[in-house]
Design brief:
mainly alpha; 16 helices
């Protein structure tokens, strides 16, 4: 019972941390929906050009709530795919305090954050240069809201309804994943990382896709005890917390979601493998 209580408390706290980001994202989308006229479209188009750079810088702050907000904003077409990928690649959560808490390994923090921001920004800018058909924010937000009747009433109530629904979904997933990690144990999960193998960064990037902050905690702990290389730690580029989960939940365009998933894993794995080979 004590273990179950700890799992519930951890899941609840992890989920509560995201509430301000969730509410802020939904409030913005509800405010934009009736105002997304021609002038607003031009303003958002200008802001999108440097969106990946801004997203990469914001994503590296030590929290995972911004990746959740970015997933919702992308589903509403407020930000581009490049900005979304930049946020996912640069997301830095528990890795920051864990590295700061180990003075002998703290020197890896600055290179790791710099790598995440640089790779995230460059990848995002390149992705946005690729031609693709995209809907306007007004169309995207309308599609996101059409099934929940959230446009009935004021924007505050609509944003609260959206936030409450996705919060319960995130809490349920965090409970399931937290229980899985607790019962499997870190030792078994570490065995999946193919110690002493060149494939270790690829496996680490795959582990990073687990939609929970536990993935970055595990990878950072293994790096601190010398079980994985810095290259495998760099595979944290693929660790975006529950951002990917929210993307698949909120965005009805499955092909886009799979594209984002493949890009995040592929870029994270490639960067980790390159650094692993360079020693």
């Amino acid at each position: 019972m004590e273990l179950l209580l700890d799992i519930f408390i951890d899941a609840l706290l992890d989920s509560l941390k995201m509430l301000p980001f969730l509410f802020g994202a939904y409030l913005l989308m509800e405010w934009l929906e009736p105002r997304s006229g021609e002038g607003m479209e031009r303003l958002l188009a200008k802001a999108r050009r440097l969106g990946p750079v801004t997203g990469a810088l914001l994503g590296c702050l030590p929290q995972c709530g911004f990746s959740v907000a970015a997933a919702n904003l992308y589903a509403g077409r407020v930000i581009t795919m490049g900005t979304l990928v930049a946020v996912f690649l640069s997301t830095s959560d528990e890795a920051v305090p864990l590295l700061l808490g180990a003075p002998e390994k703290a020197g890896a923090l600055a290179p790791l954050l710099a790598l995440k921001v640089l790779v995230g920004a460059l990848a995002g800018l390149l992705i946005d240069r690729a031609p693709r058909k995209s809907s306007s924010p007004q169309e995207g937000i309308h599609e996101l809201c059409r099934h929940c009747h959230c446009q009935e009433g004021d924007i505050l109530s609509a944003a609260l309804r959206h936030t409450g629904g996705i919060f319960l979904f995130i809490l349920a997933v965090n409970l399931a994943l937290g229980g899985g990690v607790a019962f499997l144990g870190e030792e078994r999960l570490a065995a999946l990382l193919l110690s002493e193998s060149l494939l270790q960064p690829l496996a680490a990037a795959l582990l990073g896709l687990i939609p929970n902050c536990a993935a970055s905690v595990l990878l950072t702990r293994l790096y601190l005890i010398g079980a994985v290389s810095f290259g495998s730690l760099a595979a944290l580029l693929a660790a975006s917390g529950v951002g990917l989960l929210v993307l698949f939940r909120q965005n009805p365009r499955l092909r886009e979601n799979l594209t984002v998933l493949g890009l995040v894993w592929g870029i994270g794995a490639a960067a980790g493998l390159l650094l692993h080979l360079l020693g």
